[in-house]
Amino acid sequence: MRRTPQAVGGEKRKLRLFKTEEAKGKVVFRMFSSSILVGICLIWAYRLSNLPTAGDKGRWLWIGMFFAELGFGFYWILTQALRWNLVRYYPLKFNLSQSNSSYKLPGVDIFVCTADPTVEPPTLVINTVLSAMSLNHPTEKLSVYLSDDGGSQLTFYALLEASRFAKLWIPFCKKFNVEPRSPDAYFTHKFDLHEHTADAQQRLFIKEQYEDMIKRIEAVINKGSVPEELKNQHKGFSEWDSNVTKQNHQPIVQIITDGRDTNAVDSDGCRLPTLVYMAREKRPDCLHHFKAGAMNALIRVSSEISNSAIILNLDCDMYANNADSIKEALCFFMDEERGHQIAFVQHPQKYNNITKNDLYGNSCPVLHKVELPGIGGYGSALYCGTGCFHRRTSLCGTKYSEEHKGLWNSETRKDDNRTVHELEEASKVLASCGFEKGTQWGKEMGLICGCPVEDVVTGLAIQCRGWKSVYYNPDNTAFIGVAPPTLDIALVQFTRWSDGMFQIFLSKYCPFIYGYNTIKLGAQLGYCVYLLWAPSSLPLLYYAIALPFSLFRGIPLFPDIRSRWFIPFAYVFVSKNIYSLAEALIFGSTFKGWWNLQRMWVHRRTTSFFFAFIDCIVRQLGLSQTTFTVTAKVVTDDVSKMYQQEIMNFGSTSIMFTVISTLAMLNLFSLIGVVVKVFMGGLECKDMEKLVSQVVLCGLMVTVNGPVYEALFVRNDKGSMPGSVMFKSIVLASLACLIPLN
């Protein structure tokens, strides 16, 4: 028999649908963290108490070191907020199953966003759509919306093909409890397709149907347009004429599958979820606000068609892996005691193409298992733009109120008798580019516009309206995407993120101002760990230049290794890195994976974060405008092979590679110069003792940059450093070594 909540003292006991657990070892960590803080304070004291007098050689280098270490120290203090009060959330799915007799599961609208069919192939997009359509949730309460900012008839055609294949795929998934729910990801697994059991034969049949669909889609894509005989199969193609371009077209809304239609069924006779294609209106003279604008149009259009209480948004390359992800998310929203407080549930961004040692530091298990959950101790979470379940009301600008308790028993889906055509026409008005003018959309309603990271600033604004949020990292990953397979793409992505987040810090949405008295101090500090990525580049960039510069000239910037002042420097450096390594190993990384991540942090801070800092300052001065770059989701076979072999790809003339190689050469020249001086007798033993710290740090920089030197001088493949980059880096590093020091 099912157990039901028992009456206690005449009142029904509240049913718990999720639990919260504090991380173990808090006291030990806080003691360790405090000892690091003491060491940092001693370093600051050393810098101030040993400041060279005016006219001394290296005085300005010393002052620069003080400010760099001040920056390192304050940023480290911010990072401790993420570990100081770490909690983790766990849904109680079994309790939700028990409560079905007294609860009505809310409807769920799933938004999938794509922007360009050339860098986000339609075959990739429809795999995400199919995975979303097949999630375990009542199909009459499930609606999937595809926003196509490219306005491409190729994407529309692919979606039509997917809607037909869904009639086979959805019942297949439910029957065999398939995971992952993406056909492409599922069929890449190795199966014995020669087995003659009924199950194996059905799997083979579905695989053949999927491959046939992909061939048809790719044939149309290769032609560059949809043939007339295919266009005649659906009225939606009439929206495309010779005047339609990516940046100039009318609003297009097509309900491909109407979930209200009892005849819209799969191969088992079960109802299909609603499926909608939307390409919002775009005009050259209207701002479209990139992804934020697309999401806001989806919110409005979906409110006209399905109006589900819960919204899940996914990037087009982030397919559903965990079939029960909706059920797990609903546990947080429907909890009788705390569920009404929660605005969104964010899942981690994980990837299916991570190499064994995570070459470009994309997976970062510590980020997902410690840092992002760390803000949860203060009732907050970062909205990361994909894999996030939202309460519709909170996303539409509603402030938190206790009145939201118990609203799940009311049905939110519209009882609408309008025809499909009438719904489409009404929705087109909501997807027009002029609809938002004079309204609060993009300001107080929907996603906030005008920022490259509209997701983070929107999540912050929602929490400042009184809502709480949850970062949930399940053992069975909910959603899986594609990580950048080249260094160039990875750095460009981090440039956009860090630029947008620093822009938030400099705006009215700064957590210390906008979040004052609305979110906890720990959450404000936690947000700033990411919002200050861009300026965090300055201390490391200074170290990367000043240390080899001073070492080459024999100017000591650290205490003698026999001095007591050397102890805090050594303690902070060694203990922080040992802790970082231990943390990475505990949470599933490898030593080489940790080392690769350290290299990537050096590259990110000296390039992506620094350029983002410059771009953001220039924008604040009104000298440029916000731009948005769509990163490619597919690469050539050669690039993919190189990535899988964990060979770094430097085959681009990007200015970022010039900076990376110049800093690498500067540290190498400096280290070689010191070695030459030692062997030539140019450095006495007592002088060398004062330079040991700089030699060690420059040596580490040289070691970290091993793949850079290999790409410069050893490799001769497509991923090697271009000759022009090598020439510029050698010249710039040589000039830096020759700069006179007054």
UniProtKB/TrEMBL annotation:
Mn(2+) binds at residues 291, 315. Keywords: Cell wall biogenesis/degradation, Glycosyltransferase, Membrane, Transferase, Transmembrane, Transmembrane helix. One of its GO terms (molecular function) is cellulose synthase (UDP-forming) activity. The keyword Plastid does not apply. It is a multi-pass membrane protein. GO terms for biological process: cell wall organization; cellulose biosynthetic process. The active site is at residues 149, 455. UDP-alpha-D-glucose binds at residues 120, 149. The keyword Heme does not apply. The chain crosses the membrane at residues 27-48, 60-78, 525-545, 565-588, 655-679, 691-709. One of its GO terms (cellular component) is membrane. InterPro entries: Cellulose_synth, Nucleotide-diphossugar_trans. PANTHER family: X-BOX TRANSCRIPTION FACTOR-RELATED. This is Cellulose synthase-like protein E6. It is found in: Endomembrane system. Coiled coil: none annotated. The lineage of its organism: Eukaryota, Viridiplantae, Streptophyta, Embryophyta, Tracheophyta. It comes from Gossypium anomalum.
